[in-house]
Amino acid sequence: MARGVASVGIDRRTWMAAPPNIRLDLSNRPENVVLVRETLAGVAEAVGLDAADLDDIRTAVTEACNNVVLHAYEGEEGALEVEIYAMGGSCSVFVRDRGIGLQQQASEDQWIVGIGLPVIEALASHVDFEETAGGGTEVRMQFATPGAHTLEPTSEGETSGSANGAKGAGASVTIAPVAPLARTVLPRLLGVLAARAHFSTDRISDALLVADALSAHASRSTSAGHLRIKVTIEPRKLELSLGPLDAGGARELVSGSTVDGVGRVLEKLSDHLDVALDGSYEVLDLQLTDRR
Amino acid sequence: MASTAAVVPKQGLVPGKVEDVAELFERWHRDGDPVAREALVRRFMPLARRLARRYERSSEPFEDLLQVASLGLLKALDRFDPKRGHPFSSFAVPTILGEMRRYFRDSGWSVHVPRGEQERALKVRDAQETFANEHGHAPTVNQLAEYLEVETGEVIEALQAIQAYEALSLDAPRPGADGDAMTYGEAVGHEDERYELVELDATVTAVLERIPKRERMILRMRFVEDLTQTEIAARVGVSQMQVSRLLRRSLDQLRALTQDTKKAL
User: Fold this and answer.
1) How far is CA A100 from the centre of its chain?
2) Residues 6 or more apart from A43 whose CB is under 8 A from it?
3) Which of A182, A226, A283, B45 is least buried, going by the fewest C-beta atoms within 10 A?
4) Are the beta carbons of B28 and B40 closer than 8 angstroms?
């Protein structure tokens, strides 16, 4: 970087001993920035981050994402990947693209001359830029978050692997550890996606109930330590797949959603449930529609 | 915050002829030339305005925010040293943001922001009800955004904020909904007996009886009668948003109670 970026060499290999707590695989569509912002709010709730810190992080990360949306692919569609590391006293967010690279953007007077970078520098305690393998850019931001809890991912590096799950309107999120993050992130994620699928507020609220039911039981149905939720969107229709679940885990998850006097919440609220196999693991496929 | 609108259009920030700016700074710093200062303010005011707009959704009036951002800009103009070779914007942005954050902290950021959120949430809630009453079904987020003339992202974030509120004033009677209207108990009381007959299983009622009657009614309407949340809201006399929160909360409670019961066995 030619300009005065406070580079402290944030290197994932040495500095990030553990995989991220959250990995989002999205396309660089503008509407996905809201998804990133809501995911950050979910993490903030899980680690007890105060509102002012969350606001700063969201502002900086929004700028980094906006750059990917507007400039990284020169008007084409491409990947927007976000990793979040909640490490107690600090929180790191990596925003990555596979696009034209910052050097070229800088030479074309893009974002770099705008206020995106100064805003990030003002709000983050450290900023670093890396070229990604494909020639794109990774913006690594570290924020001081005194008082926040640490979330130790228990997964064996699975959340760092590429999910390749988010072309077009869809989204893929991988979380570890499952229990605390599912509770705070899944409802926000499904809420945003249901809104985008043109669900009515009635059905958006049902999507939240589905997310709650999945969150309450998912960690008991998987021993992998992480959970990946892929969502594809069509008008008035969401298709979710959740995995990796243990053998029998998908059924267990559905029957576990039974609430006395109410029934199986997941069956009652979804339009279709199915179990698929992914290697030795199971994946729960769930379909939500809004039939008005 | 708007998802894309926050990004600066190219022409907004590029200061044009760099030597002009340097010359203006020299005239201001060395000679105290107020004309030069005014020219600098005019040139960089769009930057302050843009930064102020970032915080527009808090409860502060935009004019106040702009004033604080302008103050930050003036401080930056006074302190900036062009000889160091950095562009002014990279010095001004942190200074202005710092000024705004200090202002918010001094005036009680933690108090003001939630109030702004709450106002927005109330607007979204009211719009939802107006729409549902007029059309007979719940709106989509796009329809709400169009109705309120805001971005869909803002509606989504407001809906999320509503979910986060525990009771608060969102549960309070709305204007026009109080007065001589039937109380909730009066409105649904006659259905109670029928409901109790549905649940014959002793263990089922043991858990269910531990949550309030109103919540049991709402659960039954949604999961046994398969009513939509808007239909339930109309029957019960609360907002759909509140039905949503009551459903989530009572299902959470029931899950916990069911777990406890299983452990006890």
Assistant:
1) 23
2) A21, A22, A49, A84, A86, A91, A151, A181, A184, A185
3) B45
4) yes
For residue B27, give its domain range: 10-107
Q: What would the pLDDT profile of A29-65 be if each residue is shown by its tens digit?
A: 988 999 999 999 999 999 999 887 888 898 889 889 9
**What is the model's pTM?**
0.74
Domain shared by B103 and B23, yes or no: yes
Token pair recorded at residue A114 = 């705008």
DSSP A137-168: EEEEEEEE-TTPPB----SSSGGGS------T
d(CA A47, CA A122): 23
Contact between B224 and A265 (Cβ < 8 Å): no
Secondary structure of residue B87 in the 3-state scheme: coil
Task: Pick the residue from chain B with its C-alpha nearest to A31.
Answer: B3
CB contact under 8 A, B113 and A55: yes
Of B7, B156, B223, the CB nearest to A116: B7
Q: Provide the number of structural domains found in chain B.
A: 3
Q: Using a CB-CB distance cutoff of 8 angstroms, which residues of chain B are in contact with residue A27?
A: none
Asked if A80 has any chain B CB less than 8 Å from its own CB, the reply is no
Integer Cα distance of A275 and A245 in angstroms: 10
Q: Could you tell me the CATH number of the domain that includes residue B85?
A: 1.20.120.1810
Query: What is the ipTM score, two decimals?
Result: 0.84
